[in-house]
């Protein structure tokens, strides 16, 4: 299973994502420059956190026009796994690969802390190794993680099991019904504000993020065999 | 006759604009005073040039000779710092200092102030302070891995102070978060003396393999000088001079002296420069920081024993009609100056293009020792470059012991507090913003990006692990300005030893420091006395601990409504030999034995308790015994390395009571403590005697640990054990504190959010 981490000008969690894949999954991973429009050699795409294009205009608003995003859309279409973390989630929303939009945190400040989340659906390619309803701890670090969608969209997300994670206890940004991460209808594209790549060893404060990467590998190997 | 000659010479170097005063007018109307130069300094400039300087040249000298760039008031004192050691790869004089950490790796670090800009425009002022220090570190070739800061503000009851604090923190957060460097530590103090003159000191730590170490020098006659990054605008003109004056009524009008930051551009610059370093293309690299293009280019030429010729028409500009004076003195942010071998411009261009950065060859290295600047084909400045850097005036000032220092010798604050209940005193001290949790601050900083933060903000020191190595770096910023005010020598020592103690409590061996000296006007003899005494104390402590000063910054003229407390800030870096040694301050296990190391004396001058009870400080601060301090640090580190220590927390602000409470806050644990002392309970619990720490040790190692302390001659008392939920303290068999840790924590965590939101009904 080969991973690609697209790098936009201003991405700053690209190395962290690649490190998680190398160290937790021991699988090949490449940083792919945003001008590269070909992601054919890869089985999974990790859109990293950071401030693509300085997040000027609106978070993720400029990155979605990069050539690599056409390739990401194509990969998503072909059923490859696409994971957008933090700014990556914002880019997926701007690109229309996930429904809804992101607003500034309701308290108007950037917030970095380890939060408790509830796994809402463990039948996704990204969550297979979690228990349904399990509470896990993952770090967040964002100024705009206040996810919003209209009531109709929310109802659809809930009915189709597209809500992967919700904040349990404190909602750190004011997102609709405490949503922390959602998938597309098909379940192969996940966007989440928390950073699983920052939670892969105990010394980081929590290693609950490691299972997210392991779930992806298990799912893919279940479909394609170990390769 | 001489005059006529001078005039003729001056005519060869052109006036750049009709709106500027000409050379004679500058002399006759004494225009040099407008740019902060004295008549004597103006005289030296005439001597150096052998003619009258024009306005552009005057501007160049004024910034290069400002305190900010030349350290003219502090240079004689800075020489007292120990700067050498077997592990020093780069001492003061470059963008940042560098220390060997073994395995062919080095740590590069520096702290710098951005006080004056923050006072007038807190968001951008603080943000650009962070930007500048990051560039200082990556201009050495190092990958920045961590940021820290040290902040001082007036009382949070003042709405203007709340605005400054809120905006400065937001600015620091914004810049570091966007660039993607974790802000892992820092400190904040509140005191009325900072009311109109807040302090923002930012520190950056980087790591590099030895062979990547860069220098800011211009070498090789004929080599191109390349400008990279943002275009030059009219922002920040005379920032360095502004930073070297007192803040006054008109400071608000100096907003244009404050630059605006673009952290996105910084991130691109950082990555591009890292690529250029790895490709080994660079001969010299320097940040355009204070005094902008002038300072970086002149310093590079002076350090390289060369000269430089610049053509200002080639400098990327974001405004039209800029004069040479404006272009040279602009402090527009996110700009770097590179010198590469002639013919390799294309390779540089290729890397910069990838990152979408503009660049231009704006000049050449020359061999004639001149700093020559052209615009529109005319020479607008022609100066012997060494006179800008090496011949900057030095002021030998004399200090004078202030009246308050003499008076304080007879003040003994603790005598009148006998009535006070220790439990209530603890609640009050925990609610003091100086002691209270700084979570409100550090939650706004991304402190986890780069996934190397092993000890996050809130413990004694932050710890960053190093990729591919078992080693880690511990780092801390410290400085108690109340101690320094009461006794600058003792306070200076305390800043160094406390920083070292913090690093040791995290499991590291202290390596070296960077310092930021924030003081008032050196022209006041009592302020100069504070500066001199503090430097002496710091130097002595650094010598004793074997931690050289490898770089730093001086910020004088911190005056608005009176002088600030003298505030030397120490940024200490230490090496953790193995990740297994990483230790935090929180209790870990019920049943662990609690030890108090060091001697408690009635030392409450400058203490947090004094501030809370008296609203002002007096007396003498705690004394530092350097021999005792190094013994203490030695046994803490030994015990940690032997694996005996569950938690370690140094005793500082708020004394033993606060140390115990903070050790309990990280977990659901508490402590049952019995103290035996000849002092009053309040003294025992709140004295801020130095060279003390609280450790929790697993029961099976308790005996060995006590034995180690005894063998090393460190006073060591087993004072209790870790238990659940409650903090109970008895002094000489009498109950002193009995509280639920949860309740104490609520006070401690709520204090700053509450103060920042006084109208909240929560």
From TrEMBL, chain A:
CDD domains assigned: GATase1_FGAR_AT (cd01740)
Active-site residue list: 86 (nucleophile), 195, 197
Gene Ontology molecular function terms on file: ATP binding; glutaminase activity; phosphoribosylformylglycinamidine synthase activity
GO CC aspect terms: cytoplasm
Pfam family, one: GATase_5
Catalyses which reaction(s): L-glutamine + H2O = L-glutamate + NH4(+); N(2)-formyl-N(1)-(5-phospho-beta-D-ribosyl)glycinamide + L-glutamine + ATP + H2O = 2-formamido-N(1)-(5-O-phospho-beta-D-ribosyl)acetamidine + L-glutamate + ADP + phosphate + H(+)
Entry keyword annotation includes Metal-binding: no
Subcellular location: Cytoplasm
Enzyme Commission (EC) number: 6.3.5.3, 3.5.1.2
Keyword ATP-binding (UniProt): yes
Listed pathway(s): Purine metabolism; IMP biosynthesis via de novo pathway; 5-amino-1-(5-phospho-D-ribosyl)imidazole from N(2)-formyl-N(1)-(5-phospho-D-ribosyl)glycinamide: step 1/2
Keywords: ATP-binding, Cytoplasm, Glutamine amidotransferase, Hydrolase, Ligase, Nucleotide-binding, Purine biosynthesis
Functional summary from the UniProt entry: Part of the phosphoribosylformylglycinamidine synthase complex involved in the purines biosynthetic pathway. Catalyzes the ATP-dependent conversion of formylglycinamide ribonucleotide (FGAR) and glutamine to yield formylglycinamidine ribonucleotide (FGAM) and glutamate. The FGAM synthase complex is composed of three subunits. PurQ produces an ammonia molecule by converting glutamine to glutamate. PurL transfers the ammonia molecule to FGAR to form FGAM in an ATP-dependent manner.
Subunit structure, as described in the record: Part of the FGAM synthase complex composed of 1 PurL, 1 PurQ and 2 PurS subunits.
Protein's UniProt name: Phosphoribosylformylglycinamidine synthase subunit PurQ
From TrEMBL, chain B:
Active site residues according to the UniProt entry: 68, 114 (proton acceptor)
A Gene Ontology cellular-component term: cytoplasm
Residue ranges of the region described as Disordered: 1-26
Binding residues annotated for substrate, in chain numbering: 113-116, 135, 259, 331-333, 555
Record domain PurM-like C-terminal: where: 221-374, 589-725
Binding site for Mg(2+) 1: 112, 553
GO molecular function: ATP binding; magnesium ion binding; phosphoribosylformylglycinamidine synthase activity
E.C. no: 6.3.5.3
Residues binding Mg(2+) 2, per UniProt: 136, 287
Domain of life according to the entry: Bacteria
Protein's cellular compartments: Cytoplasm
A Pfam cross-reference name: AIRS_C
Complexes and interactors: Monomer. Part of the FGAM synthase complex composed of 1 PurL, 1 PurQ and 2 PurS subunits.
Task of the protein: Part of the phosphoribosylformylglycinamidine synthase complex involved in the purines biosynthetic pathway. Catalyzes the ATP-dependent conversion of formylglycinamide ribonucleotide (FGAR) and glutamine to yield formylglycinamidine ribonucleotide (FGAM) and glutamate. The FGAM synthase complex is composed of three subunits. PurQ produces an ammonia molecule by converting glutamine to glutamate. PurL transfers the ammonia molecule to FGAR to form FGAM in an ATP-dependent manner.
Protein name as annotated: Phosphoribosylformylglycinamidine synthase subunit PurL
